[in-house]
């Protein structure tokens, strides 16, 4: 299959990011992968992408750090010759059950810096590169169900995921005339290491599952299926949207 373009996925060592990286490789993209540090998981992901006949490379960086994100995009362009799809997937949750009274300034800054500032920096440097290339592009962010409806046990996380939606809409307006679309996914409950950390016990999981109309949790490939489409040429008239993927747990 000829190369469909060059993609970069942040937070790709595990969970949703890993599934997205593999799906984009299956779709014919060369896929550069990022996480906070080089790891065996990231190295095995690169091998899996290469086994699919696609080029890949590791770019360890902290997405909340301006210079690191700028240099990461520069390195991807140098390695692969450009950037067509940016998936700003990296994110963190806070400890579950923290209400406003419990949230310290340090905890607020930690989660906001990775989820909101990290997405802003990814959008910014990817968007500037795509504008410079002049061949359009796809920018995709990670919001959440809690970015659509506030959650009192995830105060900072919820605020950070609302920020991703606002940023996605503003960036869609700014980059639209360059043929660059900007959209985000808003997952409900997806079985990943993040999810298993938040809902460790079977009782909590069963209670939550019962509330989901489709009576199942999502899996990382459910998000990758969406990204597969929104990264494609066929999604060209969709921009500024944050799409819920949640088994019906919340309706827009
Ligand atoms: P995960 O915790 O399993 O994986 C996230 C990855 O991001 C990890 O590999 C982690 O090392 C990386 N990361 C964290 N901080 C980083 C940083 N500063 N720089 C670079 N990489 C960093 O999470 P997941 O469940 O796969 O979630 C992926 C995205 O989807 C996140 O943005 C998350 O908030 C969002 N999301 C997940 C769910 C869910 O149910 N799993 C629901 C809604 C939204």
From TrEMBL:
GO MF annotations, alphabetized: oxidoreductase activity, acting on the CH-OH group of donors, NAD or NADP as acceptor; quinone binding
One of the GO biological process terms: fatty acid biosynthetic process
The entry's keywords: NADP
TM helices/strands, residue ranges: none
Pfam annotation, one family: adh_short_C2
Family listed: Belongs to the short-chain dehydrogenases/reductases (SDR) family.
Protein name in the entry: NAD-binding protein
């Amino acid at each position: 299959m000829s190369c469909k373009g060059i993609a970069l996925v942040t937070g790709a060592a595990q969970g949703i990011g890993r599934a997205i990286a593999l799906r984009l490789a299956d779709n014919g993209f060369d896929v550069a992968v990022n996480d906070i540090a080089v790891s065996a998981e990231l190295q095995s992901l690169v091998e899996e992408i290469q086994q699919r006949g696609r080029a890949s490379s590791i770019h360890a960086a902290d997405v909340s750090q301006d210079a690191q994100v700028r240099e990461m995009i520069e390195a991807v362009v140098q390695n692969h010759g450009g950037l067509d799809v940016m998936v700003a997937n990296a994110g963190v949750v806070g400890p579950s059950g923290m209400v406003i009274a419990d949230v310290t300034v340090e905890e607020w800054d930690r989660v906001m810096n990775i989820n909101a500032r990290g997405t802003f920096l990814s959008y910014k440097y990817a968007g500037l590169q795509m504008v410079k290339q002049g061949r359009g592009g796809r920018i995709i962010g990670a919001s959440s169900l809690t970015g659509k409806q506030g959650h009192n046990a995830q105060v900072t996380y919820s605020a950070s995921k609302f920020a991703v939606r606002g940023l996605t809409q503003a960036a869609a307006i700014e980059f639209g005339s360059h043929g660059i679309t900007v959209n985000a996914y808003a997952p409900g409950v997806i079985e990943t290491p993040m999810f298993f950390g938040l809902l460790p016990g079977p009782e909590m999981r069963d209670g939550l599952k019962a509330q989901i109309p489709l009576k199942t949790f999502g899996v990382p490939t459910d998000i990758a299926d969406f990204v597969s489409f929104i990264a494609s040429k066929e999604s060209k008239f969709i921009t500024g949207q944050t799409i819920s993927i949640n088994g019906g747990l919340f309706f827009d």
